[in-house]
Amino acid sequence: MNCSFSSVRAFQAAMPVSYGWYLLGVALALGRDVDALVAAAEGLHSCPLGAGAVAGTDLPIDPARTAALLGFRGPVRHALDAVASRDVLLRLLAAAAGLAVTLSRLATDLQLWSTEELGFVRFPDRLVGGSSAMPQKRNAFLLEHLKAKPGQVIGAWTAAAGTIAATPFTNTIEVGTEATEQVWPGLAAAEQAVLLAQVLVSGARPVPERMAQRAESGFTTATAIANQLVQQGIPFRTAHHQVGEAVRRAVAAGAGTLAESGPPGWLDGIEQRDLPGQVAAHGYGGGPGGFRPQHQAARAGWVEHLRWHQQWQTELAAADTALADAVRAVMPA
Predict the structure, then answer these.
(1) d(CA 123, CA 200)
(2) Mean residue pLDDT across the chain
(3) Are residues 4 and 215 in contact, defined by beta-carbon separation less than 8 angstroms?
(4) N or C: which end of the chain has fewer CB within 10 A?
(5) Beta strands in the chain (DSSP E)
(6) What pLDDT does 41 receive?
(7) CATH 1.20.200.10: which residues of the chain?
(8) What is the tens place of the pLDDT at every residue in 267-278?
(9) Are 40 and 31 spatial neighbours (Cβ–Cβ below 8 Å)?
(10) What digits encode the pLDDT tens for the residues 229-246?
């Protein structure tokens, strides 16, 4: 996870980072996707039982009691809203689509990095397939499945939203039956994306030598050199031009370093850091040098997500027990 490699901007080598820091960035984005799912799921805690056809009932029922026995936190507040609205399902699908989109971007990076041209990561044989025509191929085909999942989730949201749109705000077949049919395949596709990503990330093996080679040949330390020149009192525009010109000369001459590509002694006093040193130096502004506290904060968020899930599971289990007891009280064995 501490392998240093080049980040990418506009499909070109940018600045040195670490593989673990990249994955942490993706994980933080996924954490916000989970936050959206949790927020959307809050709407599932209200029980519609008792709302009736459209206007509740004149019978003296106890909606709070039935809601508790069925694992809900309370009854709905408004009968018409209960039978007419399926906005909770739209929010769930929207959040699931965001999750799948984030994972598809991870898949695109892994697919590019696993090419022979880059070779930053390698997948074991169990995660690749051959070609029916080309015997030399090692196709990481699971990445292509993962990249396709957002389309399925977005399609489910689009179908559900399109079905609900322009319907009367009341109990309708379009809303209550047709639109809700899209929820399960949409959420299933998002779940499949998560499972695919788990398998692929855990199976991917970074190739440190290739990572370092590309970072060095791409002159990814150029920005840090310009920043150090600024610390010596040189305006950034001037430093930017000097370093850029040195990179141009180095590329033209096939040189591997910038020291001999500029005026004599122009980098005197500049700290020559290796790639891990460059990564560690970027500890400000959320850079990879601050990985440990970033990871600790992210982990705390993941623990909260787990606790939320466990609490809900506990509530449902308690409701199942209470419902079974209530049934036995009415219908003893």
Answers:
(1) 8
(2) 94
(3) yes
(4) C
(5) 4-9, 12-18, 46-47, 74-75, 121-122, 205-206
(6) 97
(7) 4-214+290-330
(8) 887 887 888 999
(9) no
(10) 999 999 999 999 999 999
Question: How many residues does this entry show for the chain?
Answer: 333
Contacts of 280 (CB under 8 A, 6+ apart): 288, 289
**Rounded Cα gap, residues 36 and 38, in angstroms:** 5
131-153 confidence digits (pLDDT tens): 788 878 889 999 999 999 999 99
**Average pLDDT of the residues in 302-312:** 97
Alpha-carbon distance of 74 to 72, in angstroms, equals 6
Query: Which amino acid, one-letter code, is at 227?
Result: N
pLDDT confidence of residue 1: 65
CATH superfamily of 4-214+290-330: Fumarase/aspartase (Central domain) (1.20.200.10)
Q: What is the CA radius of gyration of the chain?
A: 28
Distance CA 265, CA 263 (A): 6
Q: What angle do CA 39, 45, 48 make, to 5 degrees?
A: 130
pTM of the predicted protein model:
0.92
DSSP state at residue 101? H
Q: What is the pLDDT of residue 267?
A: 81
Give the C-alpha separation, 257 to 254, whole Å: 9
How many Cβ atoms are within 10 Å of 211's Cβ, its own excluded? 23
198 closest CA partner among 150, 142, 274: 142
CA dist 293 and 286 (Å) reads: 10
Residue 139 three-state SS:
strand
- The residue to which tokens 């191929």 are assigned: 137
